[in-house]
């Protein structure tokens, strides 16, 4: 007679699902290093005697003026290239909840709850810093986002043996986080809504959906429709990256019955994700980071002035304290008030370390900062300083915790053996009963 077992928080997925997650993380890792490189180049350039040339490049306007698309290169990066990033996020989110391990509501509850807690707590921290301190509440959403590419790149450097459940959790948390962030952008950072253009945008989106539902994958048909949808959403006043998410949601995840059904292999969503993710991680996000991260710090005195601004202080503490408390706290509440238990091979220190790592807010945080205060304004410069400092502090704290945990798990892997029977499947996926966290 089988014994009922309560749900496990951060339990590993199936071997096939974990293998797919590993492939995604490898791609994100490469993109993360390129993102860091782009940001560093921008910061160094903006603090040299050649800083005006950086500003001139960022503000260079190109595009058809007749279509209201004569935008600066910085705006093209934020509105155009990030739409590619959010298209991949839409594909990934739909795939996770339709065909991934998170189609189980019990598994989905954790990253959703953690993402909500990890966005609410930083927003509250920011508001508390700026409320009554002559601050500006407009940027309350800036510290709510997690940068998956940046976080995964750091994770690749500091970790080799952390359990796969934690890595899967970080990826899924960030995907849900992106969805909530783009929802916030659409609702709270839309200055002037033009419903007619928004209604017109539904036409190319519907045509795109009709084609992908028929499993038509021709770029000559899909790309022009996506570009038209993006342009119309941009003209509507809603941030154009919303178009990327909407288009991603229309793509079917499972194969049709005529093509063999769900067991016949990857569906169209995974195919498009495989094609577009390198463009997103390798081009779109690093180029945006290059144009968004360039801030003239003004030396030590300028950095000190920026960090005395309640806006920057709210962002730093939101990313470092708010993210950690929100994610780890919501996870603890889920474990306390439900029948879910922490997975046998994990410790709560692991959860806190991963929550700290989620405090790396870069791409979407910088985007929201530009939308809240305007590109090139003093407040936007302080936002960039706050995001950079907060992300750096979160990285250092997470590295200290996770590197020590990584040493523990590496020792356990050496003691237990990873694939002792040589069948190509790690032994941990073939054991029904795993050792508890003794010694962890």
Automatic annotation (TrEMBL):
Q: Which reactions are catalysed by this chain?
A: Na(+)(in) + 2 H(+)(out) = Na(+)(out) + 2 H(+)(in)
The record, for Pfam families, names: Na_H_antiport_1
Q: How does it sit in the membrane?
A: Multi-pass membrane protein
What the entry lists under HAMAP family is as follows: NhaA
GO cellular component terms given for this protein:
plasma membrane
Q: Where in the cell is it found?
A: Cell inner membrane; Cell membrane
Q: What is known about what this protein does?
A: Na(+)/H(+) antiporter that extrudes sodium in exchange for external protons.
Q: Which InterPro entries match?
A: Na/H_antiporter_dom_sf, NhaA
**Transmembrane annotation, as ranges:** 21-46, 66-88, 108-129, 141-162, 169-189, 195-212, 311-335, 347-373, 385-402
Q: Name one GO molecular function term.
A: sodium:proton antiporter activity
Q: Which NCBIfam families match?
A: NhaA
The similarity comment for this entry is: Belongs to the NhaA Na(+)/H(+) (TC 2.A.33) antiporter family.
What is the protein's given name?
A: Na(+)/H(+) antiporter NhaA
Keywords of the record: Antiport, Cell membrane, Ion transport, Membrane, Sodium, Sodium transport, Transmembrane, Transmembrane helix, Transport
**Some GO term, biological process aspect, for this entry: which one?**
regulation of pH
């Amino acid at each position: 007679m089988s014994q009922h077992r309560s749900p496990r928080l951060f339990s590993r997925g199936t071997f096939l699902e974990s293998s797919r997650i590993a492939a995604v993380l490898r791609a994100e890792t490469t993109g993360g290093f390129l993102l860091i490189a782009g940001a560093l180049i921008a910061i160094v350039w903006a603090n040299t005697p050649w800083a005006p040339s950086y500003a001139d490049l960022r503000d260079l306007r190109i595009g058809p003026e007749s279509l209201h698309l004569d935008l600066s290169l910085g705006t093209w990066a934020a509105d155009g290239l990030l739409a590619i990033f959010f298209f991949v996020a839409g594909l990934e989110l739909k795939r996770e909840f339709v065909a991934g391990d998170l189609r189980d509501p019990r598994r989905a509850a954790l990253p959703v709850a953690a993402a909500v807690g990890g966005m609410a707590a930083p927003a509250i921290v920011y508001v508390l810093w700026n409320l009554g301190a002559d601050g500006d509440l407009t940027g309350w959403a800036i510290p709510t986002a997690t940068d998956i590419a940046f976080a995964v790149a750091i994770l690749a450097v500091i970790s080799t043996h952390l359990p796969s459940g934690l890595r899967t959790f970080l990826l899924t948390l960030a995907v849900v986080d992106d969805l909530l962030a783009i929802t916030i952008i659409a609702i709270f950072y839309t200055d002037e809504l033009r419903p007619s253009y928004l209604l017109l945008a539904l036409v190319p989106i519907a045509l795109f959906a009709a084609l992908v539902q028929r499993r038509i994958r021709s770029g000559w048909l899909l790309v022009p429709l996506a570009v038209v949808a993006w342009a119309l959403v941009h003209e509507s006043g809603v941030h154009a990256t919303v178009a990327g998410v909407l288009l991603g949601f229309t793509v079917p995840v499972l194969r049709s019955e005529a093509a063999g059904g769900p067991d016949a292999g990857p569906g169209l969503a995974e195919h498009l994700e495989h094609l577009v993710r390198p463009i997103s991680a390798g081009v779109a996000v690093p180029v945006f980071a290059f144009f968004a991260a360039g801030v003239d710090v003004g030396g030590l005195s300028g950095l000190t002035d920026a960090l005395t601004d309640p806006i920057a202080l709210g962002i730093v503490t939101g990313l470092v304290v708010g993210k950690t408390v929100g994610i780890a706290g919501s996870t603890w509440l889920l474990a306390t008030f439900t029948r879910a238990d922490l997975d046998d091979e994990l410790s709560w220190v692991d959860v806190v370390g991963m929550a700290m790592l989620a405090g790396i807010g870069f791409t979407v945080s910088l985007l929201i900062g530009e939308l809240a205060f305007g590109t090139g304004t003093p407040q936007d410069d302080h936002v960039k300083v706050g995001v950079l400092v907060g992300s750096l502090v979160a990285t250092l704290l997470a590295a200290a915790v996770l590197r020590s945990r990584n040493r523990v798990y590496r020792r356990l892997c050496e003691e237990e053996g990873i694939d002792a029977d040589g069948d190509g499947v790690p032994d941990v996926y073939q054991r029904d009963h795993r050792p508890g966290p003794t010694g962890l």
